[in-house]
Amino acid sequence: MGIMRMGYAHVRVTDMTEAKNHYASTLGLYETLEDTSPEGNKRVFYKGWDEWDHHSVVLEEGGVGVVKYGWKVENEADIEAIEKKAQTFGLTVERMAKGENPEVGDGIRFSTTSDHVFEVYHSQTAIGTEVGTHNPDPFPRHLVGVGVPALDHSLITCEDPKLMERLLMEVFDFYATERVQTSLDDDHDLVGTWLTSNNQIHQLAVIGGPQGKLHHFAFRLDDWSEVGHAADLLTMDDVSVDVTPTRHGITRGVTTYFFDPSGNRNEVFAGGYLAFPDRPTNVWTVDQLGQGIFYHARELNERFTSVLT
Amino acid sequence: MTTIIVQPSGTEIHIEPGDTVLAGLQKAGYAYTVGCRRGGCGICKIDVLEGTFSYCRPVADTVISEQERSDGTCLSCRAVPTDDVTIQLRDASLRLANPLLGQINARARERAKAASTAPEEQ
Ligand code: FES
User: Which of chain A's residues have a Cβ under 8 Å away from the Cβ of B62?
Assistant: First the structure.
């Protein structure tokens, strides 16, 4: 099936001690490795309790924003197939050797038209979920903080969302579940697009803005009550909350946004309907963007499109 | 005591030692455009016209450049005034969002002023 999921988000943080406090103690991710990058920066690797691979979040000290994303493919041969499609698209692709990222196998790496670095790989050391596979409990008994089970998706910005959408469709075989357009006419401009390769409502979303920027990366929760509980914990831990629990019109997911101690935006996200490639794409006109993003408030806050790292 | 003077209106705000410019203004009931409040997005930048401040936490070079570190540009969510500062907001306007806190801050300012100008005991 090609791309199975966003395997990892690798982001920068200004202060590792504060960052670890946030990602491990408040969000409850499990630390799997601490090392130093080839450039000499401190790094910490994390997984969620319901993830089986070695890591899904990598923090690297020195700055803010996203370093790169890892995309896991189902079969070894998918790597080469995607490499060919990327080259046909006009991208410069380099080979990535096993071990360039700790515990990650061979793969490819390219810079997208949005100036984000993508890595595509097939194998990562399997650690296993915290509940195992034999008669598993529904969740680990001793979760820390929010206890997020897994990385879910990310939203990035770029100057040409239409081109980036085309890249994701042609190279990754993604399809758009939702779009925001300037009009319903054929010559509309694309304001934003939400894409996936499977039944997950979105794996990557792209909105117009500066090149190479991170809007947020999100962790998955089950439902409204978990999102509310997460928001309670965020306040208890004095996390800077961006948007208190609400629903998205786009994707129908329920959400809370907040900032890590370096200012990278995080989200906890639950729900969203099942995506199918043959389901008609939902289209929002830009005049209804407020409702699309924050269904109840029906207007964008001043931060949503301008605060990026 | 530390005072923030916000130009062009000349609004004076009393802030507690150790508070960032943003925390000081918010505790006094004022609001303006801010984002992450964590030094990561740069939306809260203001200009310091007079006075000095220091950053209480590390701030990324991509958010505040080498030149901005010396030209009075101030990341208000991370900057702690080291003495009285005179500031000017950029695209944002200062709004008194919580008048109750505004009144409390005005009284604190008057008390602090009275204490600092009181004639010395003979
Ligand atoms: S509010 Fe984001 S840097 Fe200050």
Answer: 63-65
Nearest by CB to residue A259, choosing from B36, B61, B62, is: B36
Written as tens digits, the pLDDT of chain A (309 aa) is: 899 999 999 999 999 999 999 999 999 999 999 999 999 999 999 999 999 999 999 999 999 999 999 999 999 999 999 999 999 999 999 999 999 999 999 999 999 999 999 999 999 999 999 999 999 999 999 999 999 999 999 999 999 999 999 999 999 999 999 999 998 998 899 999 999 999 999 999 999 999 999 999 999 999 999 999 999 999 999 999 999 999 999 999 999 999 999 999 999 999 999 999 999 999 999 999 999 999 999 998 888 989 999
| Alpha carbon distances (Å) from B56 to A17, A178, A259, B19, B82 | 15, 42, 18, 9, 11
Tally Cβ neighbours within 10 Å of residue B18.
Answer: 11
Is 0.90 topped by the overall pTM?
yes
* ipTM reported for the complex, 2 dp: 0.86
Q: How many CB pairs under 8 A join A and B?
A: 65
CA angle A259, A265, A267 (to 5 degrees): 95
